[in-house]
What does this fold into?
Amino acid sequence: NAGVTQTPKFQVLKTGQSMTLQCAQDMNHEYMSWYRQDPGMGLRLIHYSVGAGITDQGEVPNGYNVSRSTTEDFPLRLLSAAPSQTSVYFCASSYGLTDSPLHFGNGTRLTVT
Amino acid sequence: GQQLNQSPQSMFIQEGEDVSMNCTSSSIFNTWLWYKQDPGEGPVLLIALYKAGELTSNGRLTAQFGITRKDSFLNISASIPSDVGIYFCAGPEAGSYQLTFGKGTKLSVIP
It folds into this structure.
């Protein structure tokens, strides 16, 4: 099983550029989420989805869009990149929120110059 | 949202020593989760706790769900070099699908 696959692993953007971080899981998980990890800040929830067609905002949603057209995929879009969005981004999925473990991808390291 | 206060922020210990870290919240949790993140990878679940007072072990790791439901502890016995990493506590906000993480405890083990 591939688990949770994130692409790309690394990305450098200029301020104002847009891009999409891809996330796919092959475990038929209903719940998917995006986190950003910054030094000293832990993991902060950006957006999450409890099933295809359903998304909601987390703690730090500004500057990011998501959609969930299929169970497998949960892309994260940066509409106009800013240096404050330089971070490591993790996608995660699970059957439920607390009764099954959250499976994380290996992250995308994004630098915005 | 809820905030989880995790301490200590970092630890340097000798191989073979025991380790203790904790997590506190200003509000009540119904579930406490402990994750470990190895360098360059995503976090992996170590232990899940579902009842106040619950004590659960996973090999050399032991975690407890505090009686007040506002705290949790993780202990690692006889540390080894592969215990190096960042340990996170986490819990869901009551009635929501948002999983909140602490800021992590970075553990370094000196051989």
Remarks:
- The radius of gyration of chain B is 13 Å.
